[in-house]
Amino acid sequence: MNVTALDHPLAAHYLTVLRDASTPPAMFREAAVSLGGLLAVEATSGLQVSQIEVTTPLKSTVGHSMSSNVVVVPVLRAGLGLLQPLLDLLPASAVGFVGVARNHESALPEQYYVNLPHPVETAIVLEPMLATGGSLAWAVDAVKQAGANQIICISVVAAPEGIAHMKERHPDVRIVTAALDEGLNDSFYIVPGLGDMGDRLFGTM
Ligand code: URA
Description:
The protein has a single domain (2-48, 67-202), classed as Rossmann fold (3-Layer(aba) Sandwich), CATH 3.40.50.2020. It is built from six helices and 13 strands. The chain has helices at 9-19, 25-43, 83-89, 134-145, 160-169, 197-202; strands spanning 2-5, 49-55, 60-66, 70-76, 94-95, 97-102, 109-115, 122-126, 129-130, 150-158, 174-180, 183-184, 190-191. The strands form three sheets. Strands 1, 4, 5, 6, 7, 8, 9, 10 and 11 form a nine-stranded mixed beta sheet that branches. Strands 2-3 form a two-stranded antiparallel sheet. The mean pLDDT is 96. Uracil is lined by residues 78, 129, 131, 189-190, 193, 196-198.
């Protein structure tokens, strides 16, 4: 499985804003969008383009046009925080949704909603907190069932446990993250992490 951790000063800056427990929701959402844009650039680096001819004001030359048919799939609800920067770069994309809630005692994913276009070819799955990996693995199952044959997962913070789970369940996907953190605590939160991403985005602490 291909895992890329961003190494960029702006990514480090916005990640720090997200980690800071005193960052209020409005600033948290802005930082998520900025970091999401940087993650999106890296995550889309392998997408297919086709060569086209383009005529500048001076002459004809070779240009490129996006030919991948991409579906962006935020895992509800925290994935919504990364959706806008993906759509800014890929405005023609369809958006599919998967809803997975984590059972706070077992940490097992419980699915409650799936709405994906058919067929999916390339899917970019947005799961900001790759903790146990259960929710992301389940979301990837769903996009594979919808036909996806190229799958890129974007996370903000990834724990080794989540990476290991994804390697076992879905070795064919690519993961792009802003940070590889230490691990999970007894409540399955990523440490040092940034807390509950959904609560921090939407002010439901
Ligand atoms: N989900 C979160 O929002 N935060 C974590 O640390 C783990 C899962």
